[in-house]
Amino acid sequence: MERLDCNSGNYQCGGKCQPDSFNCRVGQHRSSANKALSNAARQASLKYQKGKLLGEGAYGRVYESLDGIHVIKEAKDKKHDFSNEIAYYNKAHSLGIAPKAEPALVPHEMILTKITGKKLKDMSNITIDDAKSILETRQKLHEAGIVHNDLHYENVMKDEVTGQWNIIDFGSAGPINAADLITELTDTSDFFGGKLFEADPNSELAQRYAKMEPMLENLVRRRGNGSMRDGYRSFSPKEVKGILRKYYQMLWNEAN
Ligand SMILES: Nc1ncnc2c1ncn2[C@@H]1O[C@H](COP(=O)(O)OP(=O)(O)O)[C@@H](O)[C@H]1O
Ligand SMILES: [Mg+2]
Asked: Which of 15, 54, 193, 201 could cross-link 6 (Cys pair, CB 3.0–4.6 Å)?
């Protein structure tokens, strides 16, 4: 059986492993038939290893993974569990508007497909087509019954390879309800940082978008005397769907 040299190539175990030992962590004592297998395993394990730091927030950090095609999101709180965020990511991924997510080796980390591209925040001169795509992306999420609850221009990224707009950071996402939906639809200028129509403020879509907030106020005749949230809480799921449908009909200027 061909032996691979412990101290050759990328494999450096320092010769400490036993010949043919499958405990050899880098696999250099294995036969050449196993070499491809161990290379594949090594490549797969790189997914879980952290490289360059991409972002840091109050909750934790996001790193590039060493395989170059994923990112690793790590919570500071070791008790944090990413399963909820992973589930929402994958619902959004199935709609074609978010990267794929999977568990890491520990619950307080998760793995995402890396988006090669830029955040909306770091882009200038957004075209009307892009603005339209971003709003359509948000619409897809809402129509699938999801509110993001932290939608802003740092959580919207354009994939430069596919040209697709993606929403990221589903840590606060939840099932659709009137209060969260209306917040997500009305705070839009803050959420998108004024970027959407920066380059083309006089376009038809920009003009219509500017009217969406008062239009939404008209549409949603708030009920009850309690707080705003209490008032919205009385909307049934059917009414929420109705608000959503009318909002986007109006935005896209479609006939009722
Ligand atoms: N899938 C990804 N591909 C590329 N960069 C990402 C990806 N996910 C997150 N990032 C980068 O990491 C940053 C932080 O990630 P995010 O999930 O938004 O966490 P936070 O809660 O800190 O905002 C993002 O703003 C973005 O720059
Ligand atoms: Mg974020």
From this structure: 15
Verify whether ligand 1 is closer than 6 Å to residue 115 (CB atom): yes
Per-residue pLDDT tens for 179-191? Answer: 999 999 987 667 9
Domain boundary among 85, 113, 141: 113
What is the rounded CA–CA span in Å between residue 215 and residue 217?
5
What is the mean predicted confidence (pLDDT) over 208-223? Answer: 82
Find the largest Cα–Cα distance for the chain.
82
| Ligand closest to CA 57 | 1
Same domain, 104 and 90: yes
Q: Does the Cβ of 119 fall within 6 Å of ligand 1?
A: yes
- Helix %, strand %, coil % for the chain, to 5? 35, 15, 45
The ligand 1 atom at the shortest distance from the C-alpha of residue 112 is 1
Q: Is 55 in the pocket of ligand 1 (CB under 6 A)?
A: yes
